[in-house]
Structures are given as structure tokens and as C-alpha cells.
Amino acid sequence: MSQAWVGPSQSEVGRARRAQLRIARLYFVTDDATPEESLPALIRDVVAGGVEMVQLRRKGVDVAELAELARGCRTICHDQGALFLIDDHVELAAAVGADGVHIGQTDLGPIEARAQLGADALIGLSTHSSEQVLRAANQPVDYLSAGPVHATPTKPGRPAVGFEHVTAAAMRSNLPVVAIGGLGRGTAAAAVSAGADIVAVVRALSQAPDPKTVAQDLKAELEAARSWVRLQVNGEERKCPPGASVLDFLERVGVAQDGIVIERNGEILRAVDLGKTELTSGDELELVHLVGGGKDDG
Amino acid sequence: MAEDKLRLGALELTSRLIHGTGKFPSSGVLAAAISGSGAEMITLAVRRLHLDGDHKSELEALDLAAYTVLPNTAGATTAAEAVRLARLARAAGLSNFIKIEVVGDPMTLLPDPIATLDATQELVADGFTVMPYCSDDVSLCLRLAAAGATAVMPGAAPIGSTMGVLNPFNIRAIIERCPVPTIVDAGLGSPGDATRVMEWGAAGVLVNTGIAYARDPAAMAAAFAAAVSAGRSAFLAGLAEHRPAGGYGASSPEEGVPAALVPAIR
């Protein structure tokens, strides 16, 4: 189970970035098809429309050429209170004062990226399978992306993993999950229902005739979507779909009900009530059973 | 001897050895030890379930239904925590018994007597059959008995120490003065320790580390069972009282010693 990475030497800067990440819903990832000169205005528009995170993604461009563009985009984002991340280029992220970096499975690994960027930087990691989600568990990562949900020209040749992978990531990790891949109006809410905390869009904004309005619409759609319930279970953060009962939760995490005692917010639940008790955000569950001894035994 | 039972509330036990279940190298070794000991009552602790990975239990080789389960509140450091753990333990549906354990000092693991008494009062009122693990203090044990404890469980020595009976006077005083059964818990390291307290009239003993950390736990469990039984028989038979040197006289007749040997002995 992935836990939110907390830097040992995180400063106020890191804390502020992570606080922003926790409440973010809409993430704009730039499109290679957008001409460089149009990017600043586009970013300004989408952030004004409600985008809280921007990722500068330019494939096949020289890093030195990117630096100036990155600095400009960072300034626009920071002036409007949005997080600014850079895809792949760890050194560039450090050099231009980005809030963090997004890395793929074949890029530099999270541990190396963390070593270069320090505790305050946000590090996002792409995942395409449950195995990759589980492998991220002990890595210094701040969020996971899950996708591509739909096949997309942004990632040619990569098979779509559907909403199933978004759900699997939400079940298997406590980190914020970013759904990505061909999402836009009409599908953003479905991604949230599937377990995404944040929805990333590319063409839905880059190719919109009025990006600000579309961003506003997307943000409204995300806010209206019923997001997953966040719980504390045995001291760990867990998520489950809205409307789930305690029994549903046990089934999802693969725990047999037999021999287990469940306390919800300090009250022991009777077995007959497990299926009737709906979980709500902020619930604290304790799942205990009888075990051998205990360190204090005679 | 058929009538010599350990009575704990409504329960009657033939074996006076209560078996701990912690720190055993494997589920199989634990099951073999319990089986070898003839124990009818075993302790269990309440712990969080591991949500990830396998849920294999060290108890899997045991048929819990064959034993009276004595859940403990190990891990509690306050009366409120002990009460909470006791209620969780009862909700598991195996037992109405509870062994209260409230550690007052993390270094020695010695119990907090005041919190133990508080928890005893609350859990007796809540209908539990309460057996508090406590300090080897006669006044405290009298208070616990007055509060409704079904038995008192004074520690012979710190938990897990296997140091044996550190204060024989206190343990004997509790056994003699307490109106409820005294079950000596914690610190009994060798079968001889168990025999000793049973000879004094202890109603039973609880052993865990002395068995679990033995080279052959199953054989040691059987040795403890024999030791408890020997001590109990000795108590029932009535020990010869200690007298000053020579008080009962020599065991062999003093008369009729062949005269020729007398000078050699003297």
C-alpha cells in the first residue's frame, strides 16, 4: 500500500505544495501539437478557468531550448496559484524552480529524481498496471497517474487500460491518483467515480476553441462528481467508492469477516450491521482479531 | 484427586497450567506445546489485522474451540485502553474472560496497579469475568478481589524475564490472604519455579516465555505440566513444616548404630 511520501527534511515550501496537491482536481498536460509561442496564453487561460496543476510536456526538444519556455510557464502558473511540473527532465525542473517533475516508467526512477530534487519537490509517476502501483509503494512519490484510460495520440502505441486501472490504483495506493488518457467533458466525472482524485487532460483543453470555458466546465463536472470516500483504517489512509458499506470494504480489501472485530469511530459494529453501515469520509475503522500472545504475556 | 478442580467463576479446569501463545517459533510448535501441556485455558491478544499480504495466523494449527480462551489487554497503558481492548476481545465471540494487563512502565513492563484496579472495576461492572495481572502486592490483590476479580494474577517477576519468584514472601502472602484464586503469572522460568508456587497453594500458573523460548517447547510444556501437578499434589498433601536444624530429628533411627562405627563417625 503506497503511503503519501513525506520528506524527512520537507520545508514550508514542500508542505504548501503537498497541501495544494491534496485539493487539486484538474491537471493540464501540454500538447506537443501546440506551438511554443501559443503555450503561455493557453496556460494563462486554462489556469484562469480552474486548472490547478500544469505539466510542461515537450518531447524531442533540446533541454536548453526548453528552459526559457519553462521559466515563462512557471511564472504564469505561480502568479495564478497553480502548481507547475515538468515532464521527465529532472535537472530542468530543478533549474527553473518548478514545483516538481512527472516521470514515466522508463525515465529516471523516483529515488534518483528525489535525490536530485530534494524533499520539497513533487514527484509524479506514471503507472499502467497494478504491479507498477504496488511497486511504487515504497518509493518517494507524491502522486500516481493511471492511464491511458482511452487510447490517445499523445501516447501512440500504448494500449488503453480503461477505468479499471484507475480503480485498481485507487484501491492499492493511498497516493492521489491522476486519471489520464483521452479524458474530457463527459468522461471526467466517470474518472472520479472510478476512483481518480485528479483528472488530467491534454487535447480537451489544447484543442478547445475557448480553453477557459472548457476548463470551467470540466472543473464544474469534477466538483459535481461523487468522489471516493477517504477513511483511516488501522491508522492507514484508505479509499473506497461512495456508498460502500463496511462489508463492501472488507470484500474489496480481501479480508474475510470471520473472527474479525470492527470498530467504527470508537463503536464496535455487530456483524449483522456491517452490510448496513455506509462508510463516510473521515470514518476511522479499527479491524482487529485475536492473535497469539502479545509481547506482555507471562 | 478427581475433585481437585480450579474454579474460575462458572468454569472448572482440571489443568492448573494456563498456556501463553506468544513468541513461539511456529504455529506447529505452539500447537505441540499446548497439546503437550494439557492446558485447557490459553491466552490470546487483540491486534490490528494486517490489511495487505496474507492473513495467515500463528493460531492456524490450533482448534480454538477445544480451549477456554483468556484474551488479554496486552498493549494497554491506561485503564481506558484496557477496557477498549477487552470489549474488542469479547466481540470476537470466543470468551467472556479477560486478563487485564496495563503496563505502567515500558522498561520493566511492570503493571500499573491503579489503572489495573480501575479497569477491573469497570469490566466487572460490564459483566466480564476478570482476571487482572498485577503487582505482587497483597493489599492490591485484596482490593482487586473486593472489586470483583474472579482471580488475581500477581507477577512472580517482570514479564518475559524468566527470573522466577523474586519476592516469595509477597507471593505467599497473596496466596494466603486473598479470598479468590491466586494464579501466578509472568516471570516463571523453570518448572521448579512453578512447583514452588503451587506447593505454597497457588491455584495455578500462567507460563509463556519459559516454554516458548525453551530449546524444545513441547517437551518443556510437558515438564511444566508435571511440575504444576507435583506442586499441587505437594500442597494438598501438606508440606512438612520447616523447623530449626535437627528439629524433627534424623531420618534414620539414631539407636542401634553398631558400636564399632561410632568412633569413626565422631
Specify the number of helices of chain B. 9
Please, how many helices of chain A?
11
Characterize the biggest β-sheet of chain B.
5 strands, parallel
The beta-strand count of chain B equals 10
Which structural class should the secondary elements of chain B be placed in? alpha/beta
Query: Biggest sheet of chain A, in brief?
Result: 8 strands, parallel, barrel
Poorly predicted spans of chain B: none
Strands across the major sheet of chain B, in which order? Answer: 5-4-3-10-9
Oligomer: heterodimer
Largest interface: A-B, 27 and 47 residues
Structural class of chain A: alpha/beta
The helicity of chain B comes to 25-40%
Give the overall shape of chain B, derived from the CA principal axes.
globular
Report the end-to-end length of chain A measured between terminal Cα atoms: 34 Å
Contiguous uncertain segments of 5+ residues of chain A: none
Q: What value does the Rg of chain B take, in angstroms?
A: 21 Å
Quick structural overview:
The complex is a heterodimer of chains A (298) and B (266). By secondary structure, chain A is of the alpha/beta class. Chain A is built from eleven helices and 13 strands.
What does this structure look like?
The complex is a heterodimer of chains A (298) and B (266). Chain A is built from 11 helices and 13 strands. With 298 residues, chain A is an alpha/beta fold. In chain A, helix 2 runs parallel beside helix 3, helix 2 runs parallel beside helix 10 and helix 3 crosses helix 4. The longest helix of chain A has 17 residues. In chain B, helix 1 links the parallel strand 3 and strand 4. Chain B has 9 helices and 10 strands. A 5-stranded parallel beta sheet of chain B has the order 5-4-3-10-9. Helices cover 36% and strands 15% of the residues of chain B. The model of chain B has no long low-confidence stretch (mean pLDDT 89). In chain B, helix 1 packs parallel to helix 8, helix 2 packs across helix 3 and helix 4 packs parallel to helix 5. Chain B has 266 residues and is α/β, with parallel strands linked by helices. The longest helix of chain B is centred in the last third of the chain and has 21 residues. At the A-B interface, strand 13 of A face strand 4 and helix 2 of B. Strand 13 of chain A pairs antiparallel with strand 4 of chain B.
